[in-house]
Amino acid sequence: MAGLYIHVPFCRKKCPYCNFFSVVSQRLRRNFVETLINEASQWAPTWSSLEFETLYLGGGTPSLLTEDEVRPLLENLRKFFKFSAQTEFTLEVNPDDISKERLLLWKSLGVNRLSVGLQSLDEEALRFLERLHSPLEALEKLRLARRQGFSNISVDLIYGIPGLSRTAWLQTLEDVFEFRPQHISAYALTLEDNTIYGIRVNRNLVSAPPDSLAVAHFHLLRHKARSHGYRFYEVSNLCLPGYHSRHNSAYWKGTPYLGLGPSAHSFDGDKRWWNPASIGEWEKMVDKKSIPEAESLTPTMRFNEYLITRLRTQKGIHIPDFKQHFEHEAFVQFFEKVNNLPGGLLTITPEHIRIPVRNFLVSDGIIRRFIIED
To answer: What average pLDDT does the segment 277-288 reach?
Structure first.
């Protein structure tokens, strides 16, 4: 079992909050798909024995790719790699890229899951985020996707946006839950220094959102989601029963994954590597048939990653599985730290240790208490 991720870095414009590698220069697309196909062919012999159960086209904005770009890419991926008959094939799309023609194309190419960059259904919030769609347009595009047969739709939401009132956030949630997507990814607006938004805050051009705003929005989301039948299964992800993201869930379980495209990360179960976050450097690497230097995971790194990935999920750490993976001494030291935590931060049962959903916003701080140094 494995997952395949394709990074398509092109965007019409750079969103001010986005920390992912992306470019707005469309001229750089000229050799992009050809280079992706070449990179896939170079990795094919190494990964041919594994069956890919998920395929994820992310970005950037992969929904910008034309039929002449995306069709040969997928044809070659299916030639080089073995995919399960039940492969989850996710395509990230912007609402303004959705049309009946494109939906029919994506469906004909095997896409069976859409991840829609909604972010908000509030006019002022969308202006702050500099998104190109309107609330009405976004909802109509979602309905169009459903009418064209897409029965597994995820939407992205951002909360903690400066100026977004409790009433406006509740209205966005009501509109989203009325549409009833199968999956929701919800993120607090974060301040990253290397983003346009971060630079504006550092220059005192705009204000950083208070932490209390994200906290209030998160708890409104938590209660509303539960009343509509959604459950958080990870810190930033919630879904209707049976609709968790299989691709992202594989990351949190330590499943091998191959990443193609600039800035894409890979992991084969023992070591990890990542491509340069530059189209030019990535193209040079592929042209030379070279591969990034790999980082082998030390026992300490494996321990830390196990804790980080498991504690981010609602299932948490399965104690029997933990004992199988690590020596008894590591288990004893971990439990000593668990017992020294203030009450209420963790839920502990005979078989599981988990962070309760109400504490997901402070999960990073809780997890840091368990990290060990080499």
So the answer is: 96
